[in-house]
Amino acid sequence: MELDVVFQKARVRVLNLGGFKRGAAVFLPGIGIIVGRAYAADKNLLRHEFGHYLQFKKWGAWTFFRHVAVDSILSCWRARKRKFVWYRHSDTWTEWSANLLSWEYFGRPSDWETRIYPLKVHKTRRGADFPKKLKHLEASLPEYNGM
Predict the structure, then answer these.
(1) Which of 90, 113, 126, 140 has the least C-beta neighbours within 10 A?
(2) How far apart, in whole angstroms, are the C-alpha atoms of residue 56 and residue 69?
(3) Can you tell me whether residue 24 is helix, strand or coil?
């Protein structure tokens, strides 16, 4: 699979250090999607990270860096702390909205791993709801009624 073609301007780059070796991945505007060697062909992970590229394109650099990136990084940190064992990074608004945008972009694939990359989560989960000042962004997301 030629990743640059499938994922367009979000180039896939391999950085086989630290957390990237264990499955961490990140989208950085101007650089692309960064993953560890073992995950460079993981289409589910790449589709999720491409969703962050779509957030950047849809909502702009200010919203992406000020809200999406900051909240996502804090969420990753919180999910890794042992005292937050109940917390799931994938349930936060930054993550499920990236999934939803990507799912729509790729034609609503039937093989989407909703358990790992949820398209919607119950809003009572910590971090699942959009912040009040960004509620208008949620309205710009595609509809998802379950599969």
Answers:
(1) 140
(2) 10
(3) coil
Distance CA 79, CA 94 (A): 14
pLDDT in tens, 70-108: 999 999 888 887 666 678 899 999 999 999 999 999 999
All residues at 6 or more sequence positions from 135 whose CB lies less than 8 Å from its CB, including other chains: none
pLDDT tens for each residue of 27-43: 999 889 999 988 988 99
The helix/strand/coil state of 97 is helix
Say how far apart CA 79 and CA 139 lie, in whole Å.
Answer: 27
Name the pTM for this structure: 0.88
Nearest CA-CA partner of 95 in 78, 77, 73: 73
57 membership: H or E segment, kind and range: helix 43-63
Q: Is the dihedral of CA 42, 4, 15, 102 positive or negative?
A: negative
Q: Are 26 and 49 in contact (CB under 8 A)?
A: yes
Question: Can you tell me the distance from the alpha carbon of 30 to that of 83, in angstroms, rounded to the nearest whole number?
Answer: 35
In the three-class reduction of DSSP (H, G, I as helix; E, B as strand; rest coil), residue 14 is classed as: strand
